[in-house]
Specification:
Blueprint (H helix, E strand, L loop, with lengths): L2 E3 L6 H13 L9 E3 L5 H4 L10 E4 L4 H4 L3 H17 L27 E2 L5 E2 L2 E8 L8 E5 L4 E5 L21 H15 L3 E4 L8 H25 L4 H8 L8 H17 L3 E3 L7 E3 L5
Parallel strand pairs: 1-2, 2-3, 3-4, 8-9
Antiparallel strand pairs: 5-6, 6-7, 7-8, 10-11
Length: 289
């Protein structure tokens, strides 16, 4: 079975590059029998509907509402962020960042998930390749691991040049993506991954060194947040403005995801606590407490 893992972004340029890559291997789009998706982001699902003979679209079951453009799901998704912005005390003047939540879908393909995948299963049609749940960057994220060779097809879970941004998504209770990401990074390192084929950037084999640096950088940023909260109690939006003074206005959704990730990390470590339930305000826990 000829399988394509991830389908790029829906642009003419990406489609030409993808076809060129297939040609170099002696194939064309009509030869692809299965498309496996590491997660639901448009730069990985965009061209999923361009393979006429692909009988299978495989990935995490959470891909389905994104591939099908499930209107009920998308409305709940939008409402989650409106509620979250209010909880985080983000002024209404910044709520225009929410108006474009669906905009990236123009770069995403449409299809139907035929084969839900779960951790521990074999990749369909490819014995020896195991499915690994790697939530963090996305709640639908899966990676694919071949124990015999130590190779991991990692999507956006493990990248060499940058630590992936663990993105906030709906859930009840709300998922804590930075904690998930860190746990799943350690899981992959513990498996003995010796080479990563990532969704962006170059392949790499210095897995432990790379992930150690990235986890340490996250901890250093968390220390910055903790120092702020030792000075006074702050809302998540206050924290976001303090640690991303140049980026928060243009990339509010991304910087708020990063900020909430740091808050989740510090709260998990028992270093901070919320003061209110409805409107989130955090303070550092005194060392003597």
């Amino acid at each position: 079975m000829l399988t394509l893992i991830d389908a790029g972004v829906k642009t003419k340029e990406a489609w030409e590059v993808l076809k060129s890559g297939l040609r170099q291997l002696g194939y064309g789009p009509e030869d692809v029998e299965q498309v496996v998706l590491t997660h639901h982001h448009p730069d990985h699902t965009g061209l999923v509907d361009e393979f006429p003979r692909a009988q299978y679209i495989s990935g995490d079951e959470g891909l389905q509402p994104w591939l099908m453009r499930d209107e009920t799901y998308l409305q709940r998704y939008e409402q989650f962020f409106y509620d979250l912005f209010n909880q985080c005390s983000i002024p209404e003047e910044y709520h225009n960042a929410l108006h474009g939540l669906r905009a990236p879908l123009v770069y995403s393909g449409i299809g139907e998930l035929t084969t839900p995948l779960h951790e521990g299963e074999n990749l369909p049609g490819h014995p020896g390749w195991e499915v690994i749940e790697t939530k963090g960057h996305a709640q639908t994220h899966l990676s694919f691991w071949r124990p015999q060779s130590g190779v991991l097809v990692g999507g956006d879970h493990l990248l060499h040049h940058i630590s992936p941004n663990p993105l906030i998504e709906p859930g009840n209770p709300r998922p804590k993506p930075l904690l998930q990401y860190r746990e799943n990074v350690r899981k992959c390192v513990g498996l003995g991954v010796s080479q990563v084929l990532p969704g962006h950037g170059r392949c790499f084999s210095d897995v432990r060194e790379t992930t150690d640096k990235q986890l340490k950088k996250q901890e250093e940023r968390a220390d910055q947040v903790l120092k702020l909260l030792h000075q006074k109690a702050l809302t998540p939006f206050d924290i976001c403005r303090a640690i991303f003074p140049r980026q928060y206005e243009k990339q509010l959704n991304l910087t708020m995801s990063e900020t909430l990730g740091q808050i989740d990390f510090l709260e998990d470590q028992g270093l901070i606590q919320p003061l209110e339930d409805q409107k989130l305000i955090y303070q550092a826990i005194p060392v003597s407490q």
